[in-house]
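Morning. Coffee machine broken again, so started the prediction first thing and wrote up yesterday's gels while waiting. Chain of 430 residues, entered below exactly as on the submission form.
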Amino acid sequence: MVGAAVGAADDPDRHARGYRRSVRHEQRLREALRARPLLADSLLAAALYLADVVLWFASPQTLHPTSWPLSLGFALIGAATVAIRRRWIWLAVAVLSAHTLAPFIGVGGLHTEGAAVMALTYTAAAYLPAPRAAFATAALWLPAVAVASLRYDDVGPFIGVPLLYFVVVNALAALVFFLIGRTVRHRRAYVAALEDRARTAELNQTAATVQAVADERRRIARELHDVVAHHVSVMGVLATGSRRMLARDPAATDEALATIEETGRTALREMRRLLDVLRTDQEPAGELAPQPGLAHITGLVEQVREAGLPVRLVVEGDPGPLDPGVALTIYRVVQEALTNALKHAGTATAEVRLDFGRYWMTVEVSDTGRGPTLSGNRLGHGLLGMRERVSLYGGTLRTGPRPGGGYRVYAKIPVEALDGERVGDDGRTG
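Came back before lunch.
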């Protein structure tokens, strides 16, 4: 048992653990007091007042011009200025300046006022700009020193030191605590500047990293786009050759179709990788449900009607087979336009007109309301999204107020020819 106790006492790990535990307790105490400055200042004021009480009872009674209740009550006022020194600095300076001056004109007694004056001098220098800090220091020190010097024949025995010594000591004390406070203030400003610089550098580094990742993703996307375009071109060439050789050489046609099948799967895999590269971390994962198209516009119009906006749907021409991306673009244009009308038009009616021609298809959504409130020519995010979608397929988008009132969204998208080439206004492919 004795050996075990001696071994535990000599265990260096035990001493290290105890030291680390004491350091953690000290750090938590400092953080708690730093988070509650009024509590920390109140504890300091209580300590100064306790020292004042001890000095009052320990010093000769001949040094006390007043009774102990009045003297200790007077000292409590001086200690209270330390408690409020960071919250109401100018009130504390005014009260303590008068409190320090009072003993030299025969009111109260002087015990720990010097410590309070030093604490407030440091506080003013550490928390106030230089001119204000100098003014506060002068207000704390000069009145009492000046009155004591003028009446030194009366208060000299009470002070107990020569006049020159009294003046020099007070001047040096004021200068020392003022310089300590200014040093602490400059150090805090320097540390704050370093922290701000570190945050700025971190933000710049993060922005540079994000930019580098985006640039790399764009480069990979361009390369994958070239790969996918090559596979799709090969598929088109093989499909054309297979169609021509279908009757003459079925074996070669079967081999070409097998190549098309494998090339299509490869292109699909690369397309998925391309989408993974372009997708950002903030974007949600893609839904498994099929994307809406022209067949869903009728349901969309019904939903808007149920929401309180009368809508009329007009379809002219035969849409025929459309690229799913084009059909999705038409749906999104109608959806965004009707959503804006529902939010901004007020009491109004709306019309959705789809016109499918030989070379162009148009989408027009108009209402009789007041339209969205836009500053200048700036577009909202929804309108910008519509413009990007329409531009992707070579179309144009125009939005704005209608003559006579209301708002209009108009999109015009070229029709794709059967061979995949775009048809122009003159009917020629290009």
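The longest strand covers residues 360-367. Going to sketch it on the whiteboard this afternoon.
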